[in-house]
Structure formats: structure tokens, C-alpha cells
Amino acid sequence: MNNKYKILLVEDEENIKTFLSALLEASNYRVLSAATCKIAEIMHASHMPDLVILDLGLPDADGTTFIKTVRKSFATPIIVLSARSDERDKVNALDLGANDYITKPFGSAELLARVRSALRNSRVHNENSVLNGGKFVLDDFIIEYDARRVFIKGEEIKLTQTEFNIMAFLSGHCGKVMTYSSIIKEIWGYPDEGSVKKLQVNMANIRKKIGCKPGENKYIVNELGVGYRMVGKGE
Ligand code: CA
Asked: Could you say which DSSP state residue 226 is in?
């Protein structure tokens, strides 16, 4: 019983909280819950959950306050729950360090898939950095950081410097949605009018080179209007 994953559910709406707790417990997760930002911070510090599901609209503070506090010291995966109207809040939450987001209303299967993926990726990420030294390894997909080379099924994929930098950055945050602005800041250092377009052109080239057909999400997922995410193991 002690080996269950612990999930901290931060949500003030009673209906959603009851529904999500039941859903997660039925899937064999242990659920702790908090209805305010303040209590969530205390619970996180004292229970060290494996994952946090966070509503952004909390009674005492914005959910992003929680993200800021936790990210000062911890890498706990955080999945944000947001209403469709909060597009800007969602992007802001991701830029502050949230791993993924799900838009209300959401389906049970989708939520559970996101939870599994976030838990798995935080584990893979740790294993990758410890076991593989200067390499990122995800099944048949390998990035050699020092040599700046990328391989798929043993075949080298020829990327430009910029394309490689984008791949390296996304792989360093595998499983996490990286917003356009966070990628642009990392790769070019500054945003300008054409930045998003420039990024999209580079991504289109990368996707072509790694054999992604249009609409297909192989290795990299296009989160429309938000950013990109390198997929994790088993996705
Ligand atoms: Ca709320």
C-alpha cells in the first residue's frame, strides 16, 4: 500500500474535487487534497507528492503563486486545470514551470493519460540524466549532446544548428509542454515579430527530417497555439 503514487489535488470546487478524487483513487493513486493555495503549499512541503493537479482559480491566490513557490526548490510534476477562457493564464503557468495542462471540461481517460505520462516522464528524465551521461535516449531515438548528433533507428538525422538546439532544449524538458516564448528565449535570446513564425518553420523542417507526417505526433507533439512537447516513453 505504501508504493502508491501520491497526488496532491488542489481544487476549490467541491464537485470537481469529489469527482477527481474518486477517479484517481479508482486508478490506484493516493489522493491528498487542498482547497486553497496556502494549504496546498503546506501540504506539498509536508507530504512531498509525486504529482500535483492544480486548479488556477483558487479563492486565496492565483494557482500560479503555488507554481512559483514550489519551483523555487522542487521539480514535482504539475498539471494545470484551466477553463478555456484562461488561454493566457495557461501559457503563463507553463512558462512558470507547470509540466502540462488540461482544459475544463475534460474527459476521465484524457486526464488519467496525462497523469500517467507526467509521472513516467519525471522518472525517465531522472534515469536519463543519471544513466546516459551526455545522451538522451528514448527507445530508438537518441541525441548525443556533446557531438551534437541525432539518431533514429541508428540512422543519423542531419539537423541545422538551430534545429539541433531546439531538439536539445525540448529533450531536456521531455514530457513537458514548452511554450513558444520559452523556446524562443532559449534559442534566440529575444523575441521579435517574426519569432513564432521562425520557430514554426524550424519545427516543420525538424518534423520532416524525423519522418513526421502532417498531423502526426512522432517524438514531438504540436500543442496548437501554445507550444511543443517532446513525447515521453510509452506514449
Ligand atoms: Ca476554482
From this structure: T
Instruction: Round to whole Å and give the CA distance between 125 and 132.
Output: 10
CA 59 / ligand 1 centre spacing (Å): 7
Backbone angles phi, psi at 9, to 5 degrees: -105, 115
pLDDT in tens, 160-219: 999 999 999 999 888 889 999 999 988 988 878 889 999 999 999 999 999 887 777 788
Measure 17 CA to ligand 1 centroid, in angstroms. Answer: 10
Task: Return the closest-CA partner of residue 19 out of 94, 112, 86, 96.
Answer: 112
Among candidates 1, 37, 7, which has minimal Cα distance to 22? 7
Q: Which amino acid is at 28?
A: N
How many CB atoms lie under 10 A from the CB of residue 70?
Answer: 22
**CA-CA distance, 217 to 235, in Å (whole number)?**
10
CA of 114 to the centre of ligand 1 (A): 20
Compute the distance from residue 57 Cα to the ligand 1 centre, in Å: 4
The verdict on pTM exceeding 0.70 is yes
The domains found in the chain, sorted by start residue, are 6-125 (3.40.50.2300), 130-230 (1.10.10.10)
